[in-house]
């Protein structure tokens, strides 16, 4: 078991001035399940491959425990990896796939068989040990890939989107299985995903990356409750947080006739006169009478347990989005969560009031969170 | 002919609701099948099968190739052939060509191809050795030369020092004067020079063939092998080779049949008598010599028939030996 430390680790790709991973400082504790999450191209897979030794490190260092591994070949790092496409050896049986590392290590046959059996039992793979990967379902292949990692008893597990090739239902199931398995084995794990739900549900801590830069690394609750900047605020949580630009005047930030008061500390931290007010869908109180931000229900999304209302408001309340691609999707709309099976109708007029504790304030210039 | 059977059966299998195909359509189908099947079969029979049959018949006669008539002599030609020492020399050389050339060529091809494609752990995972793009092209060079050109060129390469032999010249340059030989003039070396040239001429093709096979192996399998602690050799032995085995198998049969021939190179490099003391003789050259030098077409045909039988046996044996379970990627 070991800690993993990234110390200013950077990676440049040939012909590209901008680093794929930029000065990454990250400390993963012993036995921790850390999830790297971010949109595609944010450098999360590169980070993982740097740790595994499949990708070079141009600047900085990576340590496993006290051992500096920056320039060690992959085989000397004591790391096991689960690949997105599983990377099973197609010509070997499941047992041989799982035991390949042990075979290379020249472990005696009997001991090897025992270890393979043990891993297979843990993953319900015993009936399939003699099959070839081509004869397995996606979920079974995924478990073989897990087995190949587990059987080694490595210091660190690296998982590169191991669930992205499974169907939705199996993904949810396997998510829980992997998380509980990791806790049982207590092996330090770094898990890459682009799915923020996976990140939130599985990780002890979640590191959010964007354009190769670490945005925030915190527990799921920390990320959700106190996003450090606009990007994290918009990325974590589903549906996304409503981010509403507002001007600050003497009293506070004004959104659609509602004043959000700013503390003196927030005022002094503000660089300009513009803020972005963030309110999660569940942070609104719905009122039917006049007080509050007037809005009209455009779409009702019924999930049974919850209901999401997509409400349009007046133009001055344009919702900003950190992702330009999403702009078309949500201009002038505010997402509101209502209890499931509520009687809201399309076209209904409502008034929205942000709950006092549910307001996040961000500096519109820098995108950083203002102190609470 | 089975062509006739096809139509009624196809009709019987058709959906019952569909109207029965009329006689015109029926006729058209037979004509269609005939056009595509009969023409190639006739051409194949005329130009491929019938020469075999004719050769077998000629081998049972004493035809000189110049006369209009021939006498049937039964298996006399074969008896004489098996008593001829030169036949056994040629056959031995053919066996050497068939065993040594494919093994060395395929081994070198696999080695170069794996170096070019997956030889190195680069900055971004697995890649070919430095300069692999250049090698990829260079290995292909011999393939653009015809066998005749290669034979003529290497005849000069292995020529005696006085005649400007490049190989002897090179040996002299690196101070190995003692090793210079009249390579093609010595019964001990003449044939092995042909072997070397044949390998040189074919390796490039297998590098290209195996490269293509190796490129279809997903890179992450190699990365998994790296993380599993597999060395280059272990990876080659346990990952690359099993995954390109199908291609090796095809290459194996093809190369063995190519090497079985060897006529062009031996004829050009060593001449019609098969080199000094006829030591480098192969069956193809012996056949040619009997037919066009001694005008014993019957005898030559007997050699040809033996060559045919051997090639058939070898193809079947190799196919059997190299058969393995297919790997699905």
What this model shows, in words?
Chain A: InterPro entries: AAA+_ATPase, ABC_transporter-like_ATP-bd, ABC_transporter-like_CS, ABC_transpr_MalK-like, ABC_transpr_MalK/UgpC-like, Mo/tungstate-bd_C_term_dom, NA-bd_OB-fold, OB_MalK-like. Chain A: Residues 4-236 form the ABC transporter domain. Chain A: It comes from Actinophytocola gossypii. Chain A: Pfam families: ABC_tran (PF00005), OB_MalK (PF17912). Chain A has 372 residues and is of the alpha+beta class. Chain A has helices at residues 44-52, 94-104, 109-122, 138-150, 168-185, 196-202, 220-225, 230-235, 264-269; strands at 4-11, 21-28, 33-37, 59-64, 67-68, 79-82, 156-160, 188-193, 205-210, 213-218, 242-248, 252-255, 258-261, 274-279, 284-287, 293-302, 306-313, 333-339, 349-354, 359-363. Chain A has two domains: 4-230, P-loop containing nucleotide triphosphate hydrolases (Rossmann fold), CATH 3.40.50.300; 239-363, Nucleic acid-binding proteins (OB fold (Dihydrolipoamide Acetyltransferase, E2P), Beta Barrel). Chain A is built from nine helices and 20 strands. In chain A, helix 2 packs parallel to helix 4 (138-150). Chain A starts with a strand and ends in a 9-residue tail after the last strand. The model of chain A is unreliable at 318-331 (pLDDT under 50). The longest helix of chain B has 36 residues, at 23-58. Chain B has two domains: 2-58; 79-321, MetI-like (MetI-like fold, Orthogonal Bundle), CATH 1.10.3720.10. Chain B is 68% helix and 2% strand. By secondary structure, chain B is mainly alpha-helical. The radius of gyration of chain B is 26 Å and the shape is flat. Chain A binds chain B through residues 13, 49, 52-56, 73-75, 79-81, 83-85, 87-91, 100-101, 104-105, 132, 134, 148, and chain B through 121, 123-125, 218, 220-221, 223-231, 234, 238-239, 242-243, 327-329.
